[in-house]
Amino acid sequence: MTIQPAGLSGGPLSGACTPRPAGWLPDPLTTDPAEATRQAHLLLTAHHTGIAGPLRCLNARYRTAVFAVGDPPAQILKRHADLDAYNAEVVAYQLLAGRAVLPELLDVCDGGRTLVTTYLPRQANLAAPAVFNELLDLVARAHTVPVTWPPQIAAIMQPYTLQAALAGPAPEWIADATAWRAVLELTAGAHGPGHVPLGGFDLAPRHTRRDAAGTMTIIDGETMRLDWTGLPDVITLAYVAAEVASLLTPRQIRRTYLRHARDHGARWTDATLTRALTLWAKATGLHSLHGLTD
Questions:
Q1: Residue 79 is inside which H or E element, if any?
Q2: What residues does 210 pair with on adjacent strands?
């Protein structure tokens, strides 16, 4: 997971992400919903026995296709064209297990690059400050999950720790290696040198959902990275707050995230978090911190 981050030329992380070049995906999926549904029926039958029902195509894109399974919907079937994205999402479910960050993973198939998860019927209303506060706590739980890993998982993840990253060179996609090293050192001060710097969730409003009991989760884990820290998620949340017209200011978002992160075991202070955000922007070429350090 050391490839250069890729994304849109605009958006919350503009400058830190680069657009995908045309033709980057050698075997894209069909974007025709009817054909995508036909193919999904075959994959469900072949690879996910015991999960059946009518399929409704929710989206058919060249990278992913998503379907509601059942009437009324009970599961989600997601198909990936990109093996790296599929693997990243499977890893996200494995590493975040027990923190109620993602929906329940019911089944996976490496051959089909498909995952089946629980269906979450409602999008959360992030315009409400109390709801946005829930999301901030959810993200802080995700960022601090390494402290909950059993020894066998912690041992497997040793190559991805901050200690290992600080012992090696900065990734090729980093614009300022000195600033990046300072980011890692500040993050190690907050989480410990054995921390794996999880981050990079796709925190679009449409991906923040509630289950039937009202519990909030994030429905898309494919963009999670092991080498990016949680800082870009804080930056994205400031952007999302403006997008949904939340009453929370960027300063309130920074300080609320800080409180939740500390509640879950991190040792950030407002000064070190602000410094880390500033250095993350310098290290990656980020165009804007969306008022977070004001």
A1: strand 75-80
A2: 122, 216
CB-count burial class (<10 Å; 0-12, 13-18, 19+) for 249 = middle
The pLDDT-based confidence of 76 (bands split at 50, 70, 90) is very high
Alpha-carbon distance of 269 to 69, in angstroms, equals 45
| Cα(218)–Cα(9) distance, integer angstroms | 23
Please compute, for residue 239, the number of CA atoms within 13 A of its CA located in the half-sphere on the CB side: 19
pLDDT digits (tens, 9 = 90+) for 206-244: 999 998 889 999 998 899 999 999 999 999 999 999 999
Q: Which pairing describes strands 55-60 and 75-80: parallel, antiparallel, or unpaired?
A: unpaired
Q: At what angle do helices 231-243 and 270-284 cross, to 10 degrees?
A: 90
Peptide bond preceding 72 in cis form (omega within 30 of 0): yes
**How far apart (Å, rounded) are the C-alpha atoms in residues 220 and 67?**
14
Instruction: Kindly report the three-state secondary structure assignment for every residue of 107-135.
Output: EEECCCCEEEEECCCEECCCCCHHHHHHH
Q: Which 8-state DSSP code applies to residue 170?
A: P
pLDDT given for residue 18 in this prediction: 76
